[in-house]
Write the structure tokens for this entry.
Amino acid sequence: MAPDRNRRRIPDATVSRLPVYLRILGEQHDLGVDSISSDRLAELGGVNAAKVRKDLSYLGSYGTRGVGYEVAYLIFQIQRELGLTHDWPVVIVGAGNLGQALSGYGGFGARGFPVAGLVDVDASKVGTLVGGVRVRSIDELPQIVQSKRVSIGIVATPTASAQDAADRLVAAGVTSILNFAPTVLSVPPSIEVRKVDLAVELQILSYHEQRRIAGGAATTAARPRAVSAS
Amino acid sequence: MAPDRNRRRIPDATVSRLPVYLRILGEQHDLGVDSISSDRLAELGGVNAAKVRKDLSYLGSYGTRGVGYEVAYLIFQIQRELGLTHDWPVVIVGAGNLGQALSGYGGFGARGFPVAGLVDVDASKVGTLVGGVRVRSIDELPQIVQSKRVSIGIVATPTASAQDAADRLVAAGVTSILNFAPTVLSVPPSIEVRKVDLAVELQILSYHEQRRIAGGAATTAARPRAVSAS
DNA sequence: CATTGTGAAGCGTTTCACAGCC
DNA sequence: GGCTGTGAAACGCTTCACAATG
């Protein structure tokens, strides 16, 4: 029944780059630039021009041959494709260091993801103010999700409580989760999960550093210090 | 001159999963499990068994057919491959909210990435104590990197200062950077950069939520609230 | 005989190269 | 002439399917 517009499927790899293009286009827009080539956008985005053109072609043919892309129009089209033409209120589970930092970070709501709620299991935290947001009981999750129409949940709990937090978010009706806990969440397949994992990132860098040393002449680098078994 | 061991090239996709396997193996080890099949590891890691086996095969043939993998031995092999048999001291640039949170987070050093230094451009912050770490001037960067043999730098500055931070890190001798600022860093090709970008993650989730709505019958989800042009 | 290790097929992403168009 | 849009080739990653084997 729905009109058939917007039925293109955009590759995941492209979706993950659109936010980067969008940010760059915003900056260029603020600088007064109103037209940009794939070459320039590629340079600013740290990718190559063919990729930029392919990526943008999935949105439609919004460029002008011989000229480039109109910045403001392209911004609008990317926003539309990413669903950024309206706000997506988020709920944060876990009012520890991270949850507090996230709540306090204003540029969050400003960018279309207002904090609709911050909840915690710990009764002693409930009621306290954190970055202008009052901590509420985790039992209020369903009510917050329903009344504020939240579809994105953020897991900012310790590892041990992360699965429980995810279960509660899903039960409350959330359909996307951003997980900061270093653990694999088990959720129904219809739920979209993304992970931010500091330790994984550092270990990937460690791999490359290690490789650098093993590969050629020694550079200025760390020396063995401790061998831990777990 | 170097012995030719360790010359396999491991696919990036595999490298990014090894830390996940490692964490799971550690947990299983602590639970007293000493042998694990690719099926079980896949289940815990949220991937499929063929992928686990392929991934592990890049390390060598460390499994036993008909049995599985010895947990402790596999832990050791992954650690070795990722370069986690010794510490990698890191230096953090930017003593704002994020830099403070990172410095304070103990599980950081405990996991093989001790904070060798926390620096900031802001003279008024220099000398203050943050999470047990004293903030030092950014001018001391070269000295910290040299004396503590730091090869990994963390950019935790505001967006506007991120490129400068990266330039200083590279000049000081750092060869890997973990960037928390929402901007594309320009660095020499030999430098390994990884990015943690909250806004990008949320926008990817937004895309999927938007798609959910556009694709079928309306579910419980956010309604249009504001259309911003930049 | 359960489970690994791995060629080979399948699939998604990137890059090339150039036709199409302003 | 310059830049976009895009088939087609190249590449890398995932999955299959089964031979190898403790």
Remarks:
- Residues 11-14, 48, 50-51, 54, 64-67 of chain B lie near DNA strand D (CB under 10 Å from a C1').
- Strands of chain B lie at 35-36, 63-64, 68-70, 90-93, 115-120, 129-130, 133-137, 152-155, 176-179, 192-195.
- Chain B touches chain A through 89 residues (CB under 8 Å).
- The radius of gyration of chain B is 22 Å.
